[in-house]
Inverse folding.
């Protein structure tokens, strides 16, 4: 099958053995590594919308880079200045805004949205339909379930507020439908139960749940990051 309507911009480098589906657009200033697979209707390196009404102005930080062996599904949009690490999988209908950095061996599920400048390290799994707010940091081997909501503005845009994303430390696990208020830190190997509303920092190695989330116990062994090789 020969792909149709593929559009390649200026200053684009494409590695060896790269597959581009129908209607894929690779915008200017993009580097795509070897053995990359990008499925139909996906856009790499999209420019921010030309609008004056957004309060946040984004300055693009250099070339958009897709690492070796990355697979990206259909109808996904990766904005300019993003860097995607080797062996990462990004599913269908994902939107990743400007200047995000995603590490190696991550799995980003269908319909996940990741806002400006988020940093997601290695072996992170984010399940379908979760929203990662801007400037969030997610460390290695974190698991984030489906329909998780992270926030960065307690004033909801009504008055001045210094927006701040959340920080999830290495090996933490976040249950389905958990909601995080801005500027929360979730400790190493911590667990957040499904449906929790997290209003305070979660210490390392603790399991919290409920609305508001309260510490219930130490993280059980079977919910800690296993050290087996992956
Ligand atoms: C937090 C969690 C890990 C706790 O598991 P656990 O240690 O086995 O806890 P238990 O099932 O023994 O429950 C202990 C108590 O907490 C309650 N509880 C458990 N999870 C809860 C939650 N998310 N919110 C509120 N209460 C919860 C139980 O009803 C039980 O209450 P009881 O003692 O009054 O009967 C688990 O319940 C959870 O939320 N898992 C996340 C599932 C998920 O989202 N997976 C993602 C797959 S994509």
């Amino acid at each position: 099958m020969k792909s149709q309507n593929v559009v390649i911009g200026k200053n684009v480098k494409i590695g060896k053995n790269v597959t581009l589906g129908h209607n894929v657009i690779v915008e200017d200033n993009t580097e795509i590594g070897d053995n990359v697979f990008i499925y139909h209707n996906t856009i790499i390196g999209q420019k921010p919308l030309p609008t004056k009404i957004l309060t946040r102005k984004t300055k693009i930080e250099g070339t958009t880079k897709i690492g070796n062996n990355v697979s990206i599904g259909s109808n996904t949009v990766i904005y300019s200045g993003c860097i995607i690490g080797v062996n990462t999988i990004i599913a269908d209908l994902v939107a990743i805004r400007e200047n995000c950095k995603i590490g190696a061996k991550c799995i980003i599920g269908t319909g996940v949205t990741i806002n400006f400048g988020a940093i997601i390290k290695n072996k992170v799994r984010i399940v379908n339909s979760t929203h990662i707010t801007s400037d969030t940091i997610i460390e290695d081997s974190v698991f984030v379930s489906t329909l998780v909501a992270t926030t960065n503005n307690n004033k909801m845009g009504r008055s001045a507020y210094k927006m701040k994303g959340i920080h999830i430390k290495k090996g933490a696990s976040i249950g389905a439908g958990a909601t995080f208020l801005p500027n929360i830190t979730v400790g190493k190997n911590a667990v957040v139960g499904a449906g929790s509303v997290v209003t305070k920092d979660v210490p390392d190695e603790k399991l919290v749940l409920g609305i508001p989330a309260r510490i219930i116990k130490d993280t059980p062994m079977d919910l800690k990051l296993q050290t087996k090789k992956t």
The chain has a mean pLDDT of 94. The chain has two domains: 1-47+62-98, 115-225. The chain has no helices and 30 strands. Residues 127, 145-146, 175-176, 191, 193-195, 207, 209-210, 220 surround coenzyme A (CB under 6 Å).
